[in-house]
Task: inverse folding
């Protein structure tokens, strides 16, 4: 047993209203630079829908993630290492910009500068890559809220086998929101795909990062990630990805997407992972066993043996305490209400989701919107969002984990309703779903109340273990050519204009300039 | 031997090699961030599939041909029973096919870079220089091959020894002016030194990053948070100003 700490996140989809605040704040922090206009480390997609990039979940097409080879051994779905090197001149599995969207702005200047005429001037869309006019055919959240669903929702890869269940007719339509960031997988296929060894997991917290100085632009991480959460900066020729806001995490703060979430639906914490058994867990033959295999890797932080081994493996006592209080461990393993996104990719993702309890379709119709709480538990299968659909992306197609999760959520509502409205503690409600009343109360505190300190239990890094803190001065942050927003202002401007792409971007937008001034023009 | 020949075939090679070595060392030391292939497949993939594969495979074949023709002495191939005429047949067939692949691939890459504005805007000044030098080297090399189908110039008795003598610091520029060298060979050799001299300052450095280590390393890599601090800190503002890979 070799124990490492691993950050994780749980998103409670019941609370997501699809406001995109997480996406916007993330973008303003991390990807508002030339080359990353199309990049959303955090995005929110409407389901059913085709996702971002379009149809990213269709691994028959993109060959992301892992598979088992003929002998049952774990192998990248795109093939072995030699095959990868053989396709280094042209990657057959790489999405193009059109699969994401070509980023654009509008020619607002024209609204003011257009000469007097018979018609109102229009602000035409201009590509942020080329500066040319753009005929908009697709964009970020083009299919938001089921817009264009005749085209988009019917293309949802999760839906293909559920034709009769997933209705697009207006009366029976359903939708939900799925916010996505990098999964910071325990078994990341992007890291295994990188020929230059530029991608790595941090030993301390499992955050998956790209070493910008070691990246050689081979772009196999982009195609290797089945969630398509590694992006290619077309301006610098380097891969970039969600870094779990590691500067904040190291300071004990939640990620920007979590902090700014209006619905307060994100929970961040650490879990203790037995890294010796990762390969075995990711290699279980039956996809339906992957969930339990991954839960099995998450060690019980209250187990004295685990605590002893963790201390031996260099995990600090305050981190052990954080693991004990972890909302991620509680929701994933203790209560089993959170589920991983596409476990069948065998990457052992660490961003999990509490499935949404949608209205019960038949009861809504019969009783004019009044729900009978006593029937809720029995009618999980009548929910407007079919259990099978949720299972398609949260449980490798196995409906049982989804049923268990939804039943427990429904039981929690009944239990608390009985306690708060009728004033009676009905232990049977909890036991029906295999829980103790105290557990249901704890779960209610976490899921329904969700105090800040319950949602985020993030131990600070131990800075004292750095060998040379002075040497680290100026080495962190996004502060180099093509990325600088706070560095030497004059040098940045020169760099910007040195490259034609940058020059075009600067002329159109001059975002960096604005940011430099906003930051007081500091010359780092 | 004229002063000009001495300059072109005795001095220029060493100057180019010196710039190549020092430049590569300097760039590697100061510009890890700019060091890479700068792929544009994200922006355009369809034409690249043909162009990049044909070009790169053609270049690999051409490099192999140059090694066989220049680095391997004629006496060695004869020692293994390969007559000069047999060698020449192999060299012409291999050279013409590899050269054709390089030409076609290069033309396709050039077309793609000009035709697709998304790719065009990523083109740096260094890219323009590299494309020009590559074009000169490729065209002159192809002409040298095509004008020598009849084996009138035995470069294995002139260019080959001259190049090997350079490598052992015993330069013999007179080998390049004898009867076994035609103007087009002299031109090709001279032009390509400029490509080598510019190499370290362009995206061509990606050649030195062929990821052979990938074949034997562990699939999942871990690093400690502090591992990077063992490296001396990079002077951030200076690194930001280096304008080589195109930034």
Result:
């Amino acid at each position: 047993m070799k124990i490492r700490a691993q950050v994780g996140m749980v998103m409670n989809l019941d609370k997501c209203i699809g406001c995109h605040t997480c996406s916007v704040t993330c973008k303003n922090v991390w990807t508002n630079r030339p080359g990353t206009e199309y990049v959303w480390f955090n995005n929110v997609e409407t389901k059913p829908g085709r996702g971002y990039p379009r149809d990213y979940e269709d691994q028959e097409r993109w060959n992301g993630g892992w598979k088992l080879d003929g002998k049952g051994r774990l192998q990248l779905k795109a093939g072995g290492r030699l095959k990868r090197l053989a396709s280094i001149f042209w990657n057959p599995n790489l999405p193009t910009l059109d699969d994401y969207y070509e980023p654009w702005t509008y020619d607002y200047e024209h609204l003011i500068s257009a000469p007097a005429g018979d018609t109102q001037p229009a602000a035409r869309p201009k590509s942020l890559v080329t500066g040319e006019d753009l005929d908009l055919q697709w964009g970020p959240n083009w299919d938001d809220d089921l817009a264009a669903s005749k085209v988009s929702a019917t293309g949802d890869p999760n839906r293909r086998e559920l034709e009769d269940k997933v209705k697009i007719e207006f009366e029976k339509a359903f939708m939900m929101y799925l916010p996505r960031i990098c999964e910071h997988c325990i078994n990341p296929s992007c890291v295994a795909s990188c020929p230059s060894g530029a991608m790595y997991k941090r030993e301390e917290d499992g955050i998956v990062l790209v070493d910008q100085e070691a990246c050689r632009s081979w772009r196999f991480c982009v195609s290797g990630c089945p969630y398509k959460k590694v992006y290619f900066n077309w301006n610098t020729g380097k891969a970039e990805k969600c870094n779990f806001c590691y500067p904040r995490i190291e300071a004990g703060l939640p990620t920007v997407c979590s902090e700014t979430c209006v619905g307060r639906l994100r929970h961040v914490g650490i879990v203790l992972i037995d890294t010796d058994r990762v390969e075995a867990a990711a290699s279980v033959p039956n996809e339906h066993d992957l969930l339990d295999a991954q839960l099995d890797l998450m060690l019980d932080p209250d187990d004295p043996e685990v605590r002893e081994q963790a201390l031996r493996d260099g995990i600090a006592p305050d981190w052990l305490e954080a693991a004990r209080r972890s909302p991620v461990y509680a929701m994933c393993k203790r209560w089993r209400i959170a589920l991983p996104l596409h476990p069948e990719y065998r990457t052992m993702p660490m961003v999990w989701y509490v499935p949404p309890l949608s209205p019960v379709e038949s009861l809504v119709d019969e009783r004019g919107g009044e729900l009978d709480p006593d029937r809720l538990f029995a009618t999980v299968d009548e929910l407007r969002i079919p259990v099978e659909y949720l299972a398609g992306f949260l449980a490798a197609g196995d409906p049982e984990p989804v049923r268990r999760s939804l039943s427990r959520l429904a039981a929690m509502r009944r239990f608390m309703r009985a306690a708060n409205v009728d004033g009676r503690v009905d232990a049977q409600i909890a036991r029906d779903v295999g829980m103790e009343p105290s557990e249901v109360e704890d779960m209610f505190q976490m899921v329904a109340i969700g105090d800040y300190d319950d949602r985020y239990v993030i131990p600070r890094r131990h800075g004292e273990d750095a060998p040379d803190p002075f040497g680290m001065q100026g080495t962190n942050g996004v502060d180099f050519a093509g990325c600088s927003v706070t560095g030497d202002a004059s040098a940045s401007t020169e760099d910007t204009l040195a490259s034609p792409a940058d020059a075009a971007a600067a002329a159109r937008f001059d975002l960096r300039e604005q940011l430099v001034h906003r930051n007081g023009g500091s010359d780092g | 031997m004229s002063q000009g020949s001495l300059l072109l075939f005795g001095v220029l090679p060493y100057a180019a090699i010196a710039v190549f070595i020092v430049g590569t060392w300097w760039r590697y030391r100061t510009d890890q961030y700019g060091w890479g292939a700068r792929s544009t497949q994200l922006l355009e993939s369809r034409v690249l599939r043909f162009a990049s594969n044909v070009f790169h495979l053609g270049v690999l074949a051409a490099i192999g041909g140059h090694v066989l023709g220049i680095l391997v002495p004629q006496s060695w191939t004869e020692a293994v029973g390969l007559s000069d005429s047999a060698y020449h047949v192999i060299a012409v067939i291999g050279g013409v096919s590899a050269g054709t692949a390089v030409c076609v691939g290069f033309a396709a890459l050039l077309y793609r870079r000009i035709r697709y504005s998304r790719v065009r805007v990523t083109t740096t000044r260094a890219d323009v220089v590299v494309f020009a030098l590559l074009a000169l080297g490729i065209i002159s090399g192809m002409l040298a091959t095509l004008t020598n189908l009849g084996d009138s110039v035995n470069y294995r008795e002139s260019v080959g020894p001259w190049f090997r003598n350079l490598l052992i610091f015993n330069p013999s520029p007179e080998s390049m002016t004898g009867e076994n060298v035609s103007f087009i060979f002299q031109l090709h050799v001279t032009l390509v030194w400029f490509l080598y001299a510019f190499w370290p300052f362009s995206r061509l450095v990606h050649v030195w990053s062929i990821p052979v280590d990938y074949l034997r390393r562990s699939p999942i890599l871990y690093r400690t948070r502090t591992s990077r601090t063992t490296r001396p800190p990079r002077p951030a503002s200076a690194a930001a100003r280096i304008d080589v890979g195109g930034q």
Chain B touches chain A through 59 residues (CB under 8 Å). The beta strands of chain B are 222-223. The first helix of chain B runs from residue 3 to 30. Residues 158 and 176 of chain B are 6 Å apart (CA to CA).
